[in-house]
Amino acid sequence: MIVKNHRHSLLVAVALLVMPSLTWGSGFALFEVGNRTMGMAGAMTAVADDPSALFWNPAGMAFQTDEGIQLMFGTILIMPEQTFTGSAPYPGEGYTAEQIEQTFFPVHFFVGIPVNDRLEVSFSFFSPFGLGTEWDDDFLGNSISKKSDLFVFDLGVSMAYQLSERFAFGIGVDYMIAEIELSQNINLINPFNQRLTEVADARLKSDGINSAWAWNAGLLWKIGSGFSLGAVYRSEFSITGEGYGAFNQIPTGYPEFDAVLGTVFPFDGDVPIEATIDFPDFWTIGLSWQNEKLTLSGQYGVMGWSTYQELPIIFPENPEFSTAIPENYEDAAQYRIGGEYRASQHWAIQLGYLFDETGQPVESMSPLLGDGDRTSYTVGLSYFTDRFRLDLGYEYLKTEGRSTGGNSLDGFDGFYEGKAQLAGATFTIKF
Length: 431
Description:
Blueprint lengths: L1 H17 L16 H5 L13 H4 L13 E17 L9 E3 L8 E8 L4 E16 L12 E16 L4 E24 L4 E12 L3 E15 L2 E8 L2 E13 L5 H10 L5 E10 L2 E9 L3 E10 L6 E5 L8 E4 L5 E11 L4 E10 L17 E11 L3 E16 L10 E17 L1
Antiparallel strand pairs: 1-2, 1-3, 1-20, 3-4, 4-5, 5-6, 6-7, 6-8, 7-10, 8-9, 9-12, 10-11, 11-14, 12-13, 13-16, 14-15, 16-17, 17-18, 18-19, 19-20
Helix pairs in contact: 1-4
């Protein structure tokens, strides 16, 4: 009976390890795909006048055919922080913890190639979703999440066509590749002292290429008198991935208990797992105005997190334990405003503001992600010539603190609050 119960606990533990793989909300959507763009808080859908348009509005590439071949590349350093303050019933009032400081540096790479004065073909590589979390070894929530890393890579090809002097459309396809690695501790009741005891640490890692196809489309209308109207849609996609769970035994000090665990847990092997991960669609509409010196832009968008209603988990070798876990995410809105002032023939500065709602239900908040509405303030500096451009950007992001209110699905209640600093450089070369 003990072995049977522990066998069931093993499968439950593996399920818990997989479950967080998409409880990530807006805090893991990356829209920083260029430092000029970041300086304007991403308010580029109706501007779309550099190669970062391949993310914000591919139609904008059709108005750039006179720029020749454009090569844009760069990175943005992302330095997140999060604090946790416990509440009753567990881990209790007065308990506090901070995530281990980490730095991430997703890259972006865009190439625009004019075919004629109306048609442009472009290629892109960037990460639309990513980042991770990590807590100290003595963190009380390590049985939920100890460390996580997620990166989604987008390999895209787009086509933009200028229908008239003022109107263009763009369309593209995206090959999405996901890499996931998660780790946590496994705690079980020790039958010899009736205490919750760490018996193993577990790691989930995606195996091979887990991929899917997506698509995007955009429209850009130069209305006149300096005004432009833009709209873009990026499709949802689902990645059904295969991976494995690896386990490392932690001695409990009770040899009999350790021996039983050794007959149940595959400490000398892996447990195969399959899971279908749903990523949201995204649409936005924007309006901009510009003259020789100044660009002003605003936009509204929605992340379709409501597509993530459940997480199917499949055990190929134990189908009786396969399940679908409800998540019940909601769509979330974004509001962005940005501006650029071209101070001289070679220098420009950018400013921006972003408000991004979270789609994560309060009961789903956990050490993996305690998400909240985000507010960002951004600034950028650019130096440019006819053939070269350097963009520097900085963003200060603040996540509104939220409490689980005693409703945590993981039984780990408390108050989460976070912030991040982002800084980077982007280079553009024209041939």
